[in-house]
Amino acid sequence: MKYSKYSTVIIGSGIAGLYAALKIEQQVNLPDGLLLITKSKLGESNSRYAQGGMVAVMKENKSDSTASHISDTIKAGAGLSEFNTVKFISEHSDTVVKDLLKFGVEFDRDENNNLCFTKEAAHSVRRILHSGGDATGKMIEQALCKKVSENSNIDIYEETVAVELLTSKNECKGVLVFNDETQEYETIYSPAIILATGGIGQLYKFTTNPAGATGDGFALAYNAGAVMQDMEFVQFHPTALAIDCGENRFLISEAVRGEGAKLCDGDGVEFMSKYDDRKELAPRDIVTRAIYNEMKENDVDNVYLNAACINTEKLSKRFPNIYKKCLENGIDIAHDFIPVAPAAHYYMGGVKTNLKGETSIKGLYAIGEVASTGLHGGNRLASNSLLECVVCAYSVAEYLKSVELKTPKQIDENIKSLLDKYTDEDVILDELDIPEMKKQLQEIMWNYAGIFRDEKSLLTAINKIEKLKSGFPRNYKCISRDEYEFKNMLLTSLLIANCALMRKESRGAHCRTDFPDTMEECIHSCITKKEGVPDFVK
Ligand code: FAD
Ligand code: SIN
Hints:
The chain has helices at residues 15-27, 66-76, 83-91, 93-102, 136-150, 216-224, 254-258, 284-298, 312-318, 320-328, 384-400, 413-423, 434-448, 455-470, 481-502; strands spanning 2-5, 8-11, 34-37, 54-55, 117-118, 128-129, 154-157, 160-168, 171-179, 185-189, 193-195, 228-229, 234-241, 262-264, 303-306, 338-347, 350-352, 364-366, 371-372, 452-453, 511-512, 524-527, 535-537. With 538 residues, the protein is of the alpha/beta class.
């Protein structure tokens, strides 16, 4: 097996990983260099598909303030957002946006060259920056990818899957990776491993997330012994285009509702006022449940979004990609209703971290969607994710400036015995029908651990996943990226279903029909591999 060493290894090349790479290279002393690993091509990630924008509490936006953003975030978070985290992230937004501008990111501006701010659900003012109209993620990611690719101090491994964190006595000393093209393994030793592996959308039948969002980072961290927090909290976006286009559904950004579009049934009858005074701009969990309810009551697969009330020129200028994608599907959004339905979109749960990105394991850091910092609580406020990605990437780089990055010694009995499991040649590796198994898992999660859950459905989910798992005879070594992903999907699904079963209340995006009330006490769920069952802590 190949061996190498680096002062820092970043796993994942979404916006969190790319920005962390640039900031760490700029500021941190890296005697053994910096490596960025990604399981597909650089920049292929959830980040690339972000539409609506990025929250930015900017000094020049006089109608906004950090107090207002903190208050909106905490309200949406259903009692589980951590005040200090929200404050930290909000207060750093001005700095990181100015830094992104220096890295070549261009946010949309008006005719006087002032930054344009838009509004999305549950924000009390216009504070969301966007780029390329509705292509914010792509524009940020392209600018950062360019800088990373041009930087000769950043080594990049593409098509390389992180398969195991090398941990001994609660210290992470490196990572084992598998190159899907060459089928080779490599052990990389490093004193700082940063997980930036994104989310879990692909665990569900309907999702806005691309194929790579298979929950790998959660499984890696859990297996390494890290504390995982609030794993039951999955965010379902209310308005995905209800037309199947491959492995995911195209998003119709909340910003379309922010600009005035209305939700209605097939006859054009609007229904949101039945559910919340804020109507289309109520927090995401409320709008999602309202739509799901309408679909169930009327026994239909979707409701509609009517954007025809928005000026046509504005629609095509502000949402060029949505406009184009809908046209490709025979829908002219300036005139026609858009069929929409909820889809798994974002994961609030994750690897518990502090504001320096530290996890409960020494030498292991987590940033971006894989981390649970306490910003989003039980329900993420729109466009807070990209902000969290950049602020936390910035912050881990700041912290690493003060750490002496000494590469660990390669001889460690615990790690050696773990690596032996991958070199064991007696493992029988039959071909498995992974696409079919994935499909079954996605159906199970959607039907039994989705928008509405109860004890019976969650126990069914757990039993069915266990059964599926028994037909997947891989403990450690797999033969392909697909298999490694599926292994991670099984584990992360079980964590979600088990934590959802144990939280006997409804809060934010976690809706238990058998426990509809919200408990007075706001408690986080924490689960580790050692304990096996979630513990609820303040
Ligand atoms: P990602 O961007 O998902 O990147 C993860 C990276 O890790 C990828 O490069 C992946 O290949 C790599 N990876 C994963 N596992 C492994 C492994 N085992 N080994 C090696 N590499 C691995 N948020 C907002 O704030 N505003 C928006 O407007 C917005 N719109 C969205 C629209 C869509 C359609 C979607 C899907 C999400 C949207 N979000 C939005 C959410 C936001 O895009 C994500 O939360 C954010 O981009 C996550 O960034 P990340 O860097 O943490 O992870
Ligand atoms: C959207 O554009 O609706 C997505 C925004 C987000 O997920 O924050």
